[in-house]
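Reviewers of the previous submission asked for a worked example of the structure-prediction workflow described in the proposal, so we include one complete record here. The input consisted solely of the amino acid sequence. No template or homolog information was supplied to the procedure at any stage.
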Amino acid sequence: MSDPKIEFYKQGMGHFGKGEYAPAIEAYKSALEFEPDWTDCLHALAMAQAKGGDLDTAIATAKRIVELTPDDHFANTSLSMFYMQQGKIEEAEKEGAIARMKAWKEELKTNPDAPPPSDPTGLNVTQ
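From that input alone, the workflow returned the following structure tokens.
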């Protein structure tokens, strides 16, 4: 027996792959009815919202991911991209710096000698 949550997610991915963002969003939302905090699906939803032109909602979705999984650097990377698309450069650079720092901290768990991230934006990235 198939899992309806997974089936809706797969439908969303299929629509997304065809550039059909509105039906992808609806499918992801249907999947989230079964598990509202499913971060993989929330990531997909945020991308579909952004590609569909609803950047404000995509940002809200990405912020929810950050709340649910504070160490998820991909959520901050998405926020950076969404802010950049809105022309909010300062916010985009801030989220990008946060993403780099989170990714570095994750890498330190397996590679304690990993150098800190470079700062291509000129921001003061602190540990």
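The chain has one domain: 4-110. We consider this example representative of the routine output the project will generate in years two and three.
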